[in-house]
Each structure stands twice: as structure tokens, then as C-alpha cells.
Amino acid sequence: MRLFYTAVLWLLLPYIFLRLLWRARKQPEYLRHIGERFGFYAVRSNQPVIWLHAVSVGETRATQSLVARLRTAYPGHQILLTHTTPTGRAASEQLYGDSVLRVYLPYDYPFAVRHFLRHFRPRLGILMETEIWFNLIHTCNQNNVPLLLLNARMSEKSARGYARFSRLTRSALHELAAVAAQTAGDAARLGALGAKNISIMGNLKFDIEPPSAMLELGEQLRGQFGSGRKVFLAASTRDGEEALLLDALEKACIPDLLLVIVPRHPQRFNEVAVMFKQRDITFQRRSANRPVPPEIRVVLGDSMGEMFAYYAAADLAFIGGSLLSYGGQNLIEACAAGTPVLIGPHTYNFAEATQQAVLAGAATQVQTADQLIAEAQRLLSDAEALSKMRQQCTGFVEFNRGATEKSLQIIKELLLAEVD
């Protein structure tokens, strides 16, 4: 089955180049470092390497507490972060600067994976969340590189997809040195697919502390937005959701409201700006970096790496990717900043965290855009209810901390076993 999978990859090679070109139309960074995607690297380490793979922005941010603790616990080691997207790579650069190495993970061709492993010779590999690459896992196993699937999540939808290739999936998961799942449900689904040596660690994202610089920037943004205005943040919105929000807002009357929309992907910033113009909405870009006049009711968040600042500047936040069937986005960062959360019905990527947040009173789940705006209107007019939700956000995050410590123990055991 793995040979068949590899043959399909070779057939898809022309499509891969076309896809890079297509994505580069809006994000030219996709055409940089192409050699790395096939296992050819200019950087190397003279120290033993601990390697973490974080696909994009969310996974990269989730590594913050772990990377800090790894650098303290293993000062003689070099941390290598690999990514799949330019935005993940940019987030790594913003968070860690030159204190870590960063490259793209090669595509899952056997020759590329072998080049990667020979070049960096990692003592341990850590795949974040749901990264199951069949040739990568098999080649690491062949070369005695212990591979840990950390902060692992497996939604019911993803599990059904992997189950269609049960022999291939079972073989790959069985070759992992260990799996540390976010929840009991994730652990059960991964176990049913063939994973072994499974533990439950919680979610690393609960251990992220809002950076002080971002909180200070949040205060500055709040000053620009207007301290007397009600700021409603639509965070990480996906294609189609902005239109739903704007349609629902047209029917509502929320005095002194400022809507701040931050699209999930930077290549959509201009697309959303065009939509505002088509609707004759006067708006201001965050990149203008100036006070927002009272007559402007919409701000386009066209900046990267400032999500904590946006949360800190907002009274209430909607978490995008959940009004339409995208599976939702991470709501933990908003709660960590003390910002009450509204979220739509589609949350299968973060099902348990969403359920816990709702039960804790830190979040309210709605079914439609009209319900979303109605709930926003209610909360923004009730200072006491909003204040109570802020307190519940803090309690929700504090109660669920501790995943970093569990991760370090698993990593320590794997590194000791590798030495033995």
C-alpha cells in the first residue's frame, strides 16, 4: 500500500509545481526555498537536533511553551522547526528569531525524506497535531529516529478519511514511537486506527501566555479604535463568513459598534477589501496605523502575528471558520486574553475545547449569523454579563493548563530510550 501511495505521489508531481505557482499569485513566498521541499538545505546544525514539525500558524504558536522549556532543559541541543506554509514559517521567525533553525518539511517522497534525515540527523522528531505522512514515518522508523505525534487530535471526520486506507494508516501509526493526544476522544480514535503507546496530555494551546508586547499593542489598538466604542472582533474568518456577518449586522442596531474583521489567510486581505468597496462600506485598514474616526464602523485587520493584540483590544470575539463548514478555529487564545467568545455550529476541529468553553461559560455557541449578531448585541449591552464571561475565560484556561509538563516527560523518556 505504501508503494502504491508513493507511485501516486510521483504522478502528482506536476500538479505540486502548478499548485505552488497558483498559490504564489497571492503569496509569492510559496516560490521561495523550493529546494527545501525536496530535501535540499543550506542551513545545518553542529549540535544534536530536536526537530518539531508545525504546519502553519496555529501549530507554530502552540509550540511556544514547549520550545521555551526544551531550550532550558536541553541547552546543548539545536531546535529545528519545520513548516509547510509560508505563514507558519513567518510566525516562527516572529516568535523565535534566530534562536531556532527553520526550514520547510520536504514533500513525502522517500528520497526527499532521506535527504532531510541525513542532513539534520535529528535525535527526536515531534509532529504536531494531525501530521501523518506515511513515507516520513516509515523512513524515521528505518533510521531509528523516534517520532512522537504530540498534541494529537483526530476528529471523527478525519478518522473516517484515514479509515478508508486502514492498512496504510495502521502501519504508519504503529511505527510512531508514541502518541500524546489532546483528549480521550482523540486517543480513542487514534487507537482504533492503529496507534500504540498512547497517552492523554491535554492541549498545549492552554499553556500559551499572551506576550506582554501583544497586550501593550492591544492597549494601543484600543486607543486607536476608540475607548468609548464597543469593539466586536471577527477573528480568523473564512471565505463567505464576512458576507454573512455584514448581512446580519445590517438588520441590527448596535450603537457605537466597531466591527474588526481579521481574515484567516493574508492572501484574502485584498479580497475582503474589495467586498467592502462593492458594498459601499467605508472602512479602514489596520496597516494604516492611525485613529479610527467615529464615522468608520469597520476595520480590516490586514496584519500578521497580532491576533493576541486584536483579542486584547476587543470587548467580544467571534471565532471564524465556524459559521460555515470549515471546522472552526482555536478559541483558546481569545480566552487566554480574557475575551469572551461567540462561535458558530461547525467546530469539529476543536470540538472538545469548544464544548468545555461553553460549559465553563467562557463561550456561547450559535447556529446562524443572525443569532450570532443578536447574541453580540445582548452581551455588548450588558456590562455585567460580559464581565462575568471574562472571569470565566480566565478560569477555563487556568483549569486546563499543564500539557507542556506532560509533553516534556514523554520527550525525556524517548530521548533516554534513544541513548540506551
Description:
- With 420 residues, the chain is an alpha/beta fold.
- The protein folds into two domains: 204 residues, 3-Deoxy-D-manno-octulosonic-acid transferase, N-terminal domain (Rossmann fold); 188 residues, Glycogen Phosphorylase B (Rossmann fold, 3-Layer(aba) Sandwich), CATH 3.40.50.2000.
- 47% of the residues lie in helices and 16% in strands.
- It has 19 helices and 14 strands.
- Strands 3-2-1-4-5-6-7 form a seven-stranded parallel beta sheet, with helices on both faces. Strands 10-11-9-8-12-13-14 form a seven-stranded parallel beta sheet, with helices on both faces.
- The longest helix has 17 residues.
- The chain is globular.
Task: Record the SSE blueprint.
Elements: H1 2-11, H2 13-24, E1 49-53, H3 57-62, H4 64-73, E2 78-83, H5 86-96, E3 101-104, H6 110-120, E4 122-128, H7 134-142, E5 147-152, H8 156-163, H9 166-174, E6 178-181, H10 184-193, E7 198-200, H11 212-225, E8 230-237, H12 241-251, E9 257-263, H13 269-278, E10 283-285, E11 298-300, H14 307-313, E12 316-319, H15 332-336, E13 341-343, H16 351-360, E14 363-365, H17 369-380, H18 383-399, H19 403-419
Parallel strand pairs: 1-2, 1-4, 2-3, 4-5, 5-6, 6-7, 8-9, 8-12, 9-11, 10-11, 12-13, 13-14
Helix pairs in contact: 4-19, 6-7, 7-9, 11-14, 12-17
